[in-house]
Amino acid sequence: MLRKAFETFEEMKGKGLMANDVTYGCVLDACVRAGKIEMAKEVFQTMQEDGIAVNTILYTTMIKGYSKTKNLPAALEIFRTMRADSSVQPNNVTYNSLLDCAVRCDDLKTADELFQDMQTLMKPDLISYSTIIKRHCRCQDLTKALKILQEMKNVGILPDEVLFNSLLDGCAKTGALDLAKEVYREMRNMSIKPSNVTYSILIKLYGKGRQIERALDILEEMKQNNVAPGMIVYTCLIQTCIRSRQIHRALQVYADMKKSHVKGDHVTFNTLVNGCVYGRQLD
After folding, report:
1. 3-class SS of residue 193
2. How high is the pLDDT of residue 223?
3. By residue range, what is the domain housing residue 252?
């Protein structure tokens, strides 16, 4: 409700109430969350014109905004302005936001430099390590990603489900099924509960390896672990069956999907229709 937020902000100023850094921070954050980066820039400029001291949170919020719009040069410019301001210091959230922006923009060199800089100035947290691991997975350097995972565990930071999903996704992109099995085994050994995202990645991996029975076993494993299969899992399974030219199995999965009251999207139905056509199931 960004419009209402601005109306309240203007009403406040109209009544002679001076906005402070917290007020501006709320409005700035609202703009960033809504993806309105130009509005955020205007608020940031107005705030400075009103003589409000810019603190770490406000600088970081702007960096988050530029990360959302994949504008790394603008994010780095804000960061340089922040570093030149002796009254504020970047924190973990600041660096994590910049790391995220660099990885989103595929600027791997800048991501590595930021992570090294961060390690010198402060202790990286789970988000920092997860982002840099995602960076290595994106460029299919799984050896480096696993090395950083070990470094992270050595300093006492335990991985979470999201991090393991990044590693599994990296395995899926390279077709490293055996490595994916090891990663998944470690995830379960650490008692980290897989999600629909985890299972969908595993199904894709088994699908690429033409291991349709193992892919179908994932559906049963989810039900046994009380994880309700979602649309993505069902769609991935249907795609796997059709790639293996087993349209009858795809239709069985679709029947299970309907029985579970899970609705498909255009990808689900495109896959099914194409599969039926190729399988000559015209009715």
Report:
1. coil
2. 87
3. 194-283
